[in-house]
Amino acid sequence: MDADTIARMIEAGLPGSQARVQGDDGVHFEATVVCAAFAGKLPLARHRMVYATLGELMGGAIHALALKTVTPEEATAGG
């Protein structure tokens, strides 16, 4: 599994989102996801939305995914 593939899957599953994913070992990744659909949602709900785009890869091919989830407004504000 590579970071670009994960980013594409997240962006496909969350229309209008932008995902930046990094990971050097192929199983541990860090991602920043900017998505308007996160508005009004708590961090746990936002993370679940991202995990849903990756399905069974979570806990399998993707051993760990550290997430930062923000709305476009939060990203602009530096949040």
UniProtKB/TrEMBL annotation:
Gene3D superfamilies: BolA-like (3.30.300.90). SUPFAM superfamilies: BolA-like. GO terms for cellular component: cytosol. Coiled coil: none annotated. Pfam families: BolA (PF01722). InterPro entries: BolA, BolA-like_sf, BolA/IbaG_stress_morph_reg. It comes from the Bacteria. One of its GO terms (biological process) is DNA-templated transcription. Belongs to the BolA/IbaG family. PANTHER family: BOLA TRANSCRIPTION REGULATOR (PTHR46229), BOLA-LIKE PROTEIN 1 (PTHR46229:SF2). This is BolA family transcriptional regulator. It comes from Pseudoxanthomonas broegbernensis. The lineage of its organism: Bacteria, Pseudomonadati, Pseudomonadota, Gammaproteobacteria, Lysobacterales.
